[in-house]
Amino acid sequence: xxxxxxxxxxxxxxxxxxxxxxxxxxxxxxxxxxxxxxxxxxxxxxxxxxxxxxxxxxxxxxxxxxxxxxxxxxxxxxxxxxxxxxxxxxxxxxxxxxxxxxxxxxxxxxxxxxxxxxxxxxxxxxxxxxxxxxxxxxxxxxxxxxxxxxxxxxxxxxxxxxxxxxxxxxxxxxxxxxxxxxxxxxxxxxxxxxxxxxxxxxxxxxxxxxxxxxxxxxxxxxxxxxxxxxxxxxxxxxxxxxxxxxxxxxxxxxxxxxxxxxxxxxxxxxxxxxxxxxxxxxxxxxxxxxxxxxxxxxxxxxxxxxxx
Length: 308
Ligand SMILES: Nc1nc2c(ncn2[C@@H]2O[C@H](COP(=O)(O)OP(=O)(O)OP(=O)(O)O)[C@@H](O)[C@H]2O)c(=O)[nH]1
Ligand SMILES: [Mg+2]
Ligand SMILES: [Zn+2]
Fold this sequence. Notes:
This protein has helices at residues 102-115, 132-143, 159-166, 181-188, 251-254, 271-277, 283-297, 299-303; strands spanning 2-9, 12-17, 20-26, 46-50, 57-62, 68-73, 78-84, 88-93, 119-123, 147-150, 169-174, 214-217, 222-226. It is of the alpha/beta class. α1 (102-115) packs across α7 (283-297). Guanosine-5'-triphosphate (GTP) binds at residues 124-125, 127-128, 152-154, 175, 177-183, 196-199, 206-210, 228-229. Magnesium ion (MG) is lined by residues 181-182, 209-210, 226.
């Protein structure tokens, strides 16, 4: 029978089938349909199951994924899937504590672009005040086909809009530790009652309260995956010359560059660079682009060759 992975801890997976939950292990050494990766299964994966009359049921196969939201796990030196088969990625950020990091959001947008998954950017904690710079930077996402919503779990404002937006969709929440991913999920699904943590006064960031990805059914349809906070999102699986595809505001200009296969960082007659100079592309977005480009160019040294 088919089931959906809810979470996995120490090689024991919780799965759901028709609203019932089962604890399972993988049958055999290597699961059919998975290659080399950080973990063979992620929340949202569909699997084939052999029910056992006693003890753990067995997972015999991973059904082919429709898509995956993944990142490079630096410690494990492997691709780590945070959620599989998703309709929407929700990237949560906050203005002040922890500080807004547009470069992180840019990387999430590129990752979503590669997998062709829609992105919703949520600015939580707007009770802390939102500077014009942040609003200006958020406008870029709206212009590049991402949805942007603001909320505050503290005051409750804006949360209902997010609940409406994600109803009926299979979505994964991601972001730095402490931005309020779990807090938002708790207000949308009060029965979830997940643990939330305080912000470290010394470092102005979260304490990595959520320890593993967990899938929760949404009574309004679809599901929500909560994930542990991540500090960095490394992108490894594209060629440097293709990166500008994933910055939609560059699309129009990249075709006008003098050099074919232009990487827009040094080539003469670069139309993207001209557009940045003329103020048509946000300077800070271009800076993000250059940093990701650099990490892609140096990835062999930084990560070793990507493995699946
Ligand atoms: N001021 C303010 N604080 C909030 C808001 N939402 C959440 N918090 C606080 O932010 C802290 C972190 O919230 P969490 O929900 O644990 O954050 P998280 O993103 O799940 O963090 P990790 O699980 O560590 O990745 C908690 O102390 C929350 O009470 C908000 O809208 N305004
Ligand atoms: Mg959390
Ligand atoms: Zn160029």
